[in-house]
Amino acid sequence: MCLPDIVATDSTTVAGVTAIVARGFSLTRARLPLTFGAITDRGVSGVDKSYFIQLAASMAAVAALVGLAAWVGISRPGGPLDVERVRAILAVEFPGRALDAIWVATDGSGALARSGGMALVLCPIGDGFAARQIPWAQAVSSSFRNGQLRIDLADIAAPVATIALPSWPPTDLAA
Fold first, then answer.
1. What are the tens digits of pLDDT across the range 106-143?
2. How many Å separate Cα 145 from the centre of its chain?
3. Is this structure's pTM higher than 0.70?
4. How many other β-carbons are positioned within 10 Å of the β-carbon of residue 102?
């Protein structure tokens, strides 16, 4: 069995450019088709048609996915919260919990509810809301500055909830 010489080279001059063409080991003797920027005997070849077909197909696929997302309305926000909507969300997230009181943010972007000794927090995440529960004492002792209640949730997905309220803590349910 005879193997071809791996390091043998030839030099070719095409259109004033000298190129070194290496002949290496190959399992087949067939020549591969020339692709992007290869130097041939007839000059420098450009990009072949298959590249443009693949590029056009990829662009069409991306455009179709963007159009589908826009048509379905994936990025449509849910709108501001009100008391009824907060009750409905909390009923799904925490079934069987009785709500003692609900405080909705003045801008409708979050809410806080008391359920026994726990505080149920709704905070905006993306286009929706994340529901978390924390001890009521932690919610009452959260920092309140400039009309913003900042609650540390200690959660990677929703680390801090910021709820705009007129005042905090409530005087009638602070215990």
1. 998 899 999 989 999 998 887 788 899 999 999 988 98
2. 31
3. no
4. 19
